[in-house]
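Researcher: Going back to the complex we discussed earlier. I've cleaned up the inputs and rechecked each line, so this should be the final set. Can you rerun the prediction on the complete assembly and write out the structure?
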Amino acid sequence: MGRPREFEVDKAIEKATALFWRNGYDGTLLSDLTKKIGITPPSFYFAFGSKEGLFKRVIERYFAEQGETLEAACRELTARAVASRFLYGHADMFTDRSHAPGCLTMNSALPCAEGDPLRVWLAGLRERVRVRLRDRFAYAKDAGDLPGDADPDALARFVTITNWGMAVEAQSGASRKQLHQVVTLALATWPQAEGAGE
Amino acid sequence: MGRPREFEVDKAIEKATALFWRNGYDGTLLSDLTKKIGITPPSFYFAFGSKEGLFKRVIERYFAEQGETLEAACRELTARAVASRFLYGHADMFTDRSHAPGCLTMNSALPCAEGDPLRVWLAGLRERVRVRLRDRFAYAKDAGDLPGDADPDALARFVTITNWGMAVEAQSGASRKQLHQVVTLALATWPQAEGAGE
DNA sequence: GGGATTATATAGTGGCTAGTATAGAACATG
DNA sequence: CATGTTCTATACTAGCCACTATATAATCCC
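Model: Rerun complete. Updated structure for the full complex:
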């Protein structure tokens, strides 16, 4: 009941995603958003509550998608294959020409002020990725897929650090091929359990 | 001649550095700067021209210092030692408690809008680091310190990506020890020329 | 001391941006 | 059609922030 929406919320979120990805949170003005979505400010506020409200929905959607990618990687049979799929996959994503280069969350809000709720929230989301990988590597170690002296926590940090670093280089123009070379180097001496093949 | 300054420019730049490092460019207000430095806006503008003017001096000073660190690393005898000194040194710097965690330039302005002169400028400064390392590794390859199939460009990207990634993790709270573990893992993959010891 | 120069302080202003007050249009249901 | 509800449009505002107009104070050189 009531007057029907004249725009689609999902489409609007996609358009907002593109803007935030390219120009960051502060760099994307409300007028940019309303113009791109094709609505006026009151409709915007009726639908999303605030600029930050829309941003949160954008990021939640992004992390939901990334979460699926992460889980798909974690379903690989070996720790090495998990890391490989995770890193090559993100190298491709960061350089996908259908959106701005790099990682949406890093492009959006890494330079927020310390203690800014947005920065804290994003750091928390990043940490969840690291923790998920750590748990997967700990499982791999228990399963004998990683050597007994392997450190799941350090390995997970190594993977995520490589990942965020790729996002930075991608933003400043690194190509898919260049990132792939780096992933190959990063995986070169992945610890192998005795007698385990990939 | 003329009335003497009642504050020291160098001290002012140091104080501004601390603020930008912690709260980013947009997150640092002019009033924060004048308050911390202890001057009024007219004195600020007389001395630095603009907020962006001061920011540029801050970044130039930072890169001058980082440039010395980089050159010191490049003076190491082997490519591996260069990478090792560069990465361990930055791991320490990113977690040095005398300033905000992470990298000043990444904390300051990674999320600028695409095409923003500040973002372009900072990307250029980062690239100079990568190019310097690449040249050093190319030299090492010529000198037989790296294997014939080593790729100096990819190695330099691997090192810088690890570095920017560490800066991100440091900003969200990773410890010096945790970063050191990652550096150790990253260097474990380092290619060795036949018969070359570290 | 007089004049030129350089720094400082008070007290603003102009512009920009997220967000709104008010009114009205398009639906559902009785 | 009447009425309540949900959305939209015009036009606006409140606040913030980088920056400045004006006047004054401290130095140097003659």
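Model: Worth noting: Residues 1-4, 6, 29-31, 41-42, 44-45, 50-51 of chain B lie near DNA strand D (CB under 10 Å from a C1').
Researcher: Good, that matches what I expected from the previous run.
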